[in-house]
Amino acid sequence: MASDLLFMCVVVGWLLLTLSIFLTLFSRFKHTKFKQHLFRFLNVVLLLQTAVWVIYVMNTSDNSVIGYWSILASQVICNLLCYMSVKRRIAKIKPSLDYFSMD
């Protein structure tokens, strides 16, 4: 029973990772608000992935734990890409003082 639940969590982890990668690639064509919401979503997914990984490590003693590292590493990369994209987009739209004249 516990192994079935862990297997289901790993499958859901892979599905969430696939969704995260797809949305991160798709966000290249979207606006800042979408990217900010995506970044929040990716943070929640990373938190869930980490919680599942901790439960998986506690209940598994074989070498299959190494396979879950790929899920976590890929999720962290998605989060970093989205974070850099959001920061870059915010920096582009933030007005600077060069555009205002004091005349």
UniProtKB/TrEMBL annotation:
Spans traversing the lipid bilayer: 6-26, 38-59, 65-86
Keyword vocabulary terms for this entry: Membrane, Transmembrane, Transmembrane helix
Protein name: Uncharacterized protein
